[in-house]
Amino acid sequence: MRRCCILGGKEKIMLYQQKQYPFYNPVLVRISMGGGLTVNYVESLDQSCVEFPHVHECYEIYYCLSGEQHLYIDGAMNTLFSGHFAVIRPGIHHYTNYEPNMPKRYLVFVFAPPTAAASKSKGDQAEENFLSRILKYFEKNPYYVTKDRFGCDSIIYKMETEIEESYPGREQMICALYQEYLISIFRNLDPVEREKNTPSNTNLAIQITKYMHANYNKNLTIQDIADFFYISSRHVNRIFEEYFGQSLKRTLNIYRLNYAKNYLIDTAYSVEKIASLVGFSSQKMLYRLFKEMEGITVSEYRAMHRTGSSAVKCSGAEAPESKKNEKIE
């Protein structure tokens, strides 16, 4: 947001500044979930916010309320559309890419789980088991990105009203809404729910493709997929090949290859950078597969599809690779 004023008949241009929303709560709030979880900070932000790459010892949830958000997590770009969110574990560098001309609004929600177990009732123990089951996923994975299936946006709008207003019982209602929001967020991640929703091999094969779409940009292995669905790697391969008639590994490479096309068209990133962004271990693999599956080189594809209107949409773009580097090994 740009601010300006008129002084002595002349316009004085002020600095660009981040828009301040009333939806902001830096107060530490302790909720009963899991035996004493603490919410550190909640704020609504938009495209005027300049985020610096940062890391901390708390979990952070980014929830995209509108527009399109490009969120860099652990060096990889993740696109959040309206109704999508990301949960990031402690110790992982992350930030939202600054794109002032791309309207968006999103919520940041920072929390810390309880550090020590205390005497708990049966209800507290059930909450702790639920929370532990969710957080166990992050022991091996730095983050999780998915589409919200449990109406978290409606809870966010209730939060906004309570934080902006001063109704009686405000603190208690904010505490209750924080807990409702976290439970709803975690329901999207709960492996128990996932198992219930995939009772057959057919459904499981479809779910595997969805997981691959969401995680193709990571250093994803068959064992990672097997661990996520609580089955063996052999079982994953068998289910996938029986249903689709193609190996899981090749399908994953096809996804990566096709997503690479977006970067080739929309950015001037080097092939090495694009290969890394879509999950290939090296640019040589992208060169080889592109020639094998498309029948043309990466540079030829880029030249065919980039036009004068295909301006670079991402900051920090690099010049495209020259053809002399396209050696297929």
What does this protein look like?
Strand 6 (59-73) and strand 7 form a beta hairpin. The longest helix is centred in the last third of the chain and has 19 residues, at 248-266. Mean pLDDT is 82; it is low at 2-7, 192-202 and 308-329. The chain folds into three domains: 24-192, Jelly Rolls (Sandwich), CATH 2.60.120.280; 198-241; 250-325, Homeodomain-like (Arc Repressor Mutant, subunit A, Orthogonal Bundle), CATH 1.10.10. Helix 5 (201-215) crosses helix 7. The termini are far apart. The strands form two sheets. Strands 3, 4, 5, 6, 7, 8, 9, 10 and 11 form a nine-stranded antiparallel sheet that branches. The chain has a two-stranded antiparallel ribbon with strand order 1-2. With 329 residues, the chain is α+β, with helices and mostly antiparallel strands. The protein is globular, with a radius of gyration of 23 Å. It has eleven helices and eleven strands.
Mean pLDDT: 82
Uncertain runs: 2-7, 192-202, 308-329
Fraction in beta strands: 15-25%
The termini sit apart by: 50 Å
CATH domain fold name of the largest domain: Jelly Rolls
* H-E string: EEEEEEEEEEHEHHHHHHHHHH
Instruction: Please tell me what the overall shape is.
Output: globular
Helix content: 40-55%
The name of the CATH superfamily of the largest domain reads Regulatory protein AraC
**Structural class of the secondary structure composition?**
alpha+beta
Total DSSP E strands: 11
Q: Return the CATH class of the largest domain.
A: Mainly Beta
Question: Number of helical segments?
Answer: 11
User: Major beta sheet, specifics?
Assistant: 9 strands, antiparallel
Report Rg. 23 Å
From the coordinates shown, what is the CATH architecture of the largest domain? Sandwich
Number of domains: 3
